[in-house]
Amino acid sequence: MGLYERWCKSTKKTDKRKHYWTYVEKDGGRIEIRNDLAETIRSHYDRLERIAEDVNRLGYKVASGILSTAMPQTAKGRSGDFGEILATELVEEEIGLRVPVRRLRYKDGRNMAMRGDDFIGAGYDGDGEKLWLLKGEAKSNKVLGKATIMSARKVLNRDNGRCTPDSLLFVANRLLESNDPVDNELGRSLRDEVGLKSLRADRIDHMLFTVSGNGPHASLEKDLDTIGTNRDHYVVNIHVEDHQDFIAAMYLEAEDLGDD
Q: What is the pTM of this model?
């Protein structure tokens, strides 16, 4: 079972190519996924095998310090990153596209937000031939409101709804640096798309992903009502009532690799 299936109860509404998904925590769901979520957070900042190598060479305390150096230490920084992490996991678990690059590993500074699209899902159609993309914006707020939702929609719509070229090229180049031929093939497809811009709108889906303490704001569903059906649109909310305390606790757990 995936992270979300164990953690949350979901309600999913679909109207043509519009998808409105809301999630609330199950009783006991947080305890069920806590250790796995901590490991997932770590994996977005570094490769788990590299962290394990640090532990073997230097011990738990020093390895924890190295990992902590890559993670944001401010509440705002952690909240923003946490939204991207949860969004990435949702895309791969619920939609089936890859988010092939864990971009938080490449931040210029641990408390700085990265520029460009928050997350990009990529893959191929059912026949495995035609490239398919998902452009995503992630918002994590104690109190989610209309202004944040409007801002996210504006970002999704820019560049004519396409993934921003610099974001797509970043993902493409990381995949082309891989030793995996599957990654290389996808990277080449993405790099071609940066130059050719050949994908039609109906093969570039959008996701507006939110995690918040106040649950799904009414503006989320209203936002979905106003947009067209030329692509799949996903509007998602994860309701975590103790939003800030939960994020703080999960980062502390993620940084704690154990002891000698």
A: 0.95
